């Protein structure tokens, strides 16, 4: 079952500006798709188009009716004067999550990411990795049908990455889908079902690792090697 169908003919930050073009794919229930590509290729722009925040979009983004999504941005955003707990409490009330569920879910995730003892402090004062953890905990709190994640791995310590991957796996078993952009290709190779390789604003290869390897002309190569060959024209 498709949770999200994306058909972008063209999109940009200003009217008629074409930063990305011809990006078509769908994300099914429980699937994890990795968006990969060089700096400036258009990964974040694709994500922003899907989230509906771009000024110019010629195309369509269709969500399964009634589905809830959570976005984990690359750059964390906080209310300056609210504590971590107040962020979670506010998010819960906006999304109709009752107090019992809030307390149960937040204690599970605060503990998983070793954030329990700072829950009454301001996220604005946290380290980069701790801030990233807050964005992840907020997304998990919603128990969404779809996660849209822009580069989750930079900044997290190794045990936080391990916990994050374990929780994402549990979420997929529940039927949640994930669309994730990343530069950490060895991890992506291990966890993603399919890849969308974007270069210069458009899709240059897509599919399973087998299909990407075929496109690169080197059957047994790693995702990183395929990336170099396809996206950067190197061998
Ligand atoms: N707010 C913006 N206004 C105008 N142009 C932008 C804006 N944000 C990004 N761009 C341009 O869009 C293009 C694609 O950028 P994007 O951020 O989507 O790349 P990316 O693949 O996510 O890169 P990275 O791996 O460096 O995060 C770049 O040329 C960039 O300069």
From TrEMBL:
Give the highest taxon in the source lineage.
Bacteria
| Cross-referenced Pfam families | ABC_tran (PF00005)
Q: Which residues does UniProt assign to the signal peptide?
A: none
> What Gene Ontology molecular-function terms does this entry list?
ATP binding; ATP hydrolysis activity
InterPro entries assigned: AAA+_ATPase, ABC_transporter-like_ATP-bd, ABC_transporter-like_CS, ABC_Transporter_VariousFunc, P-loop_NTPase
Domain ABC transporter, first and last residues per copy? 3-225
Keywords, sorted A to Z: ATP-binding, Nucleotide-binding, Transport
- Stated name of the protein: ABC transporter ATP-binding protein
Q: What is the lineage of its organism?
A: Bacteria, Bacillati, Bacillota, Bacilli, Bacillales
């Amino acid at each position: 079952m498709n949770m999200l169908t994306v058909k972008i003919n063209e999109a940009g930050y200003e009217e008629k500006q074409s930063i990305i073009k011809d990006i078509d794919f769908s994300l099914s229930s429980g699937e994890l798709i990795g968006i990969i590509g060089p700096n400036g290729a258009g990964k974040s722009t694709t994500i922003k188009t899907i989230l509906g925040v771009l000024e110019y979009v010629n195309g369509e983004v269709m969500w399964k009716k009634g589905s809830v999504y959570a976005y984990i941005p690359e750059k964390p955003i906080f209310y300056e004067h609210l504590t971590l707990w107040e962020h979670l409490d506010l998010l819960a009330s906006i999304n109709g999550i009752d107090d019992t569920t809030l307390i149960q879910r937040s204690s599970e995730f605060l503990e998983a990411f070793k954030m329990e003892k700072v829950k009454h402090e301001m996220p604005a004062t946290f380290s980069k990795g701790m801030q990233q953890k807050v964005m992840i905990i907020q997304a998990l709190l919603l128990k969404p049908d779809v996660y849209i994640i822009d580069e989750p791995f930079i900044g997290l310590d190794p045990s936080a990455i391990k916990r994050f991957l374990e929780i994402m796996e549990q979420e997929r078993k529940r039927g949640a889908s994930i669309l994730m952009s990343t530069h950490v290709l060895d991890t992506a190779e291990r966890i993603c079902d399919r890849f969308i390789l974007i270069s210069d604003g458009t899709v240059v290869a897509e599919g399973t690792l087998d299909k990407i390897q075929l496109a690169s002309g080197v059957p047994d190569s790693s995702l990183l090697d395929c990336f170099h060959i396809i996206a950067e024209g190197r061998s």
